[in-house]
Amino acid sequence: MYSAAASASPPRRDFISVTLSPEEVVGAGGYNNSKAWRRRSCWRKWKQLSRLQRSVILFLFAFLAVCGVISYTSMGEPWKSLTNKSLDDQRTEPEIPRLKLANPAVLPAPQKADANPGDYPELSPQKPPKPPHIRRGPSNFQIKPPWRDVRLKTKGTSRVAEEPVQADKEEKTEKSVISWRGAVIEPDQSTEPPSSKVKELEKPSSVEAEDQKEPVPINERQMAVIEAFRHAWKGYKDFAWGHDELKPLSKSYSEWFGLGLTLIDALDTMWILGLKEEFEEARKWVANDLVFDKNVDVNLFESTIRILGGLLSTYHLSGDSLFLEKAKDIGNRLMPAFKTPSKIPYSDVNIGRGTAHPPRWTSDSTVAEVTSIQLEFRELSRLTGDDKFQKAVDEVMKHVHTLSGKNDGLVPMFINTNSGQFTHLGVYTLGARADSYYEYLLKQWIQGGKKENELLEDYMRAIEGVKKHLLQRSQPKKLTFVGELAHGHFSAKMDHLVCFLPGTLALGAHNGLTADHMQLAEALIETCYQMYAQVETGLSPEIVHFNLHAQKGHKDVEIKPADRHNLLRPETVESLFYMYRFTGDKKYQDWGWEILQNFNKYTRVPTGGYTSINNVQNPSNPEPRDKMESFFLGETLKYMFLLFSDDIDLINLDKYVFNTEAHPLPIWVPE
């Protein structure tokens, strides 16, 4: 209530408070609450203010409006990110027996993996690394490392090796965190290639420490893998640095393309194993010495899966744009391979001259090679915004989809680059020259968000063809195996390469395909393990033949002299990884441990490196071949490390898909 003095004199005018006189409030009819009265009253009071007062009030309103816009801009994206994250947290993941549920994916940065030098001579205590430099990279995949406490658990004792890796807390989230989650199967719709307009690279989203899960300790078996990798890397560094492959016995090297294949193949393995110093040293070589402008012929398939795939994977894991720039360079240099009458690519490309050609002895390419480069080229298009890469490889798949000459989804091994037709009809295998065609049907479907139904249809039809024409059981243990079909005649021959199939079947079942695929996967992985267990060295030969009829004194597996070599191949370990990740059955880890021990016993070279061997049936003299394939570091040891891990977020299979050289690439999500 106003005082008498106040009512007797005009109200005080100032720009902080404006009052209404009682006369204006109380009238004959009491308080008038009409809109017209309110407008006239406010207008009279506004006119009573001086020009200076009105100017100050207007300035304050304008200033508050500007502040509001700035606040909305700065707070909108983080709020949206938190909202999206809250929705994601509400979703539940399917339970995996004996494995904990997946948390939001946090890919660890390289962590020191120190062990007691008495247990592993090559491992020496190392200083904690400096916080890594955060470079531009793709959203969500380049993750700032948290402080890590790595514990090595041994029987009766617990040794702790701490590696503090502090996250850069000053960097703000600029993009909302994307959950790389595979979409459900949807009605037929094609995955559109990226816009031809080059997209600006996004800065990596930071992950706050409180959002990261507690790191899973590295266990003793993983430490053994790290020790094996370091031993192999020592040989490569000492005797073959910057060259394609190590020859550990002669302490020299061999060249295939002259592009440092082993080093590039091993980059993402070092990142996953936490070998920071080795990774940084290899990165310097890539930055300073990896040059693609040279007059050399490379195989399109091998250079795509090893070099392009390795560079793309390392870019995603590290966020370092150096690797993407190198990937774009090699990707562009491989494109002349697609300049053929049929658009089926040539097998060989000269990356310096920009020319391509088929092998000297034929105009054919192998079916596996032309249909197992799609994951890499599609991802390169997605990252660069240049759709030429994806268009080229998608055209190959669409063409193969329409071809005649298949047998219930099974494809021949060769295709002509001039006519675009299958050749050497009537021979069907899941081994060399055809294997990864089937693998990439499923993985492209997963990579693209489960939308490209032609790929899924071809995959499902092919698996039915395998069951109808290629599956048999051996004697005496009744092992289920995949043979070959040649002009209607079945052969009980099975390549070690075929052991990719159990893992692929399990991956399909995990992504919602029919449950009998997992049952077949369980039967086949038992067979692949027996290809090791029934051999004198405990190592599988390159090719086996199965006995279809019981014979006294004979095992299921027979080995011919020309087939008894072992190249340190990864396929069985790869499938063991998938089987353990999806079932939690510890026997798969135990089988992998046996294989690693036998690699150490029969293929390890004391001065550094591992070697392929010629005779898996002779433990006293396995006849070393003096060659360490790049895939031993790129695939075999990587899958070993992942197999022995109980952390299902270490390369989460709902967010990544591995190419056929074990390089993880992200699963796409709708934009």
From TrEMBL:
Enzyme class: hydrolase
Domain of life: Eukaryota
GO CC annotation terms, alphabetical: endoplasmic reticulum membrane
Catalytic activity reported: N(4)-(alpha-D-Man-(1->2)-alpha-D-Man-(1->2)-alpha-D-Man-(1->3)-[alpha-D-Man-(1->2)-alpha-D-Man-(1->3)-[alpha-D-Man-(1->2)-alpha-D-Man-(1->6)]-alpha-D-Man-(1->6)]-beta-D-Man-(1->4)-beta-D-GlcNAc-(1->4)-beta-D-GlcNAc)-L-asparaginyl-[protein] (N-glucan mannose isomer 9A1,2,3B1,2,3) + 4 H2O = N(4)-(alpha-D-Man-(1->3)-[alpha-D-Man-(1->3)-[alpha-D-Man-(1->6)]-alpha-D-Man-(1->6)]-beta-D-Man-(1->4)-beta-D-GlcNAc-(1->4)-beta-D-GlcNAc)-L-asparaginyl-[protein] (N-glucan mannose isomer 5A1,2) + 4 beta-D-mannose; N(4)-(alpha-D-Man-(1->2)-alpha-D-Man-(1->2)-alpha-D-Man-(1->3)-[alpha-D-Man-(1->3)-[alpha-D-Man-(1->2)-alpha-D-Man-(1->6)]-alpha-D-Man-(1->6)]-beta-D-Man-(1->4)-beta-D-GlcNAc-(1->4)-beta-D-GlcNAc)-L-asparaginyl-[protein] (N-glucan mannose isomer 8A1,2,3B1,3) + 3 H2O = N(4)-(alpha-D-Man-(1->3)-[alpha-D-Man-(1->3)-[alpha-D-Man-(1->6)]-alpha-D-Man-(1->6)]-beta-D-Man-(1->4)-beta-D-GlcNAc-(1->4)-beta-D-GlcNAc)-L-asparaginyl-[protein] (N-glucan mannose isomer 5A1,2) + 3 beta-D-mannose
Segments passing through the bilayer: 55-75
Compositional bias (Basic and acidic residues): 160-175, 197-213
SUPFAM superfamilies registered for this protein in UniProt: Seven-hairpin glycosidases
One of the protein's GO biological processes: carbohydrate metabolic process
Topology versus the membrane: Single-pass type II membrane protein
GO molecular function: calcium ion binding; mannosyl-oligosaccharide 1,2-alpha-mannosidase activity
Residues where Ca(2+) binds: 660
Keywords: Calcium, Disulfide bond, Endoplasmic reticulum, Glycosidase, Hydrolase, Membrane, Metal-binding, Signal-anchor, Transmembrane, Transmembrane helix
Pathway: Protein modification; protein glycosylation
Enzyme Commission number: 3.2.1.-
InterPro entries: 6hp_glycosidase-like_sf (IPR012341), Glyco_hydro_47 (IPR001382), Glycosyl_Hydrolase_47 (IPR050749), Seven-hairpin_glycosidases (IPR036026)
Active-site residues annotated for this sequence: 302 (proton donor), 435, 542 (proton donor), 571
Cofactor(s) in the UniProt record: Ca(2+)
Compartment(s) of residence: Endoplasmic reticulum membrane
Region: Disordered, residue numbers: 97-213
Cysteines paired by S-S bonds: 499-528
PANTHER family according to UniProt: ENDOPLASMIC RETICULUM MANNOSYL-OLIGOSACCHARIDE 1,2-ALPHA-MANNOSIDASE, MANNOSYL-OLIGOSACCHARIDE ALPHA-1,2-MANNOSIDASE-RELATED
Name the UniProt record assigns to this protein: alpha-1,2-Mannosidase
Organism for this UniProt entry: Corythaixoides concolor
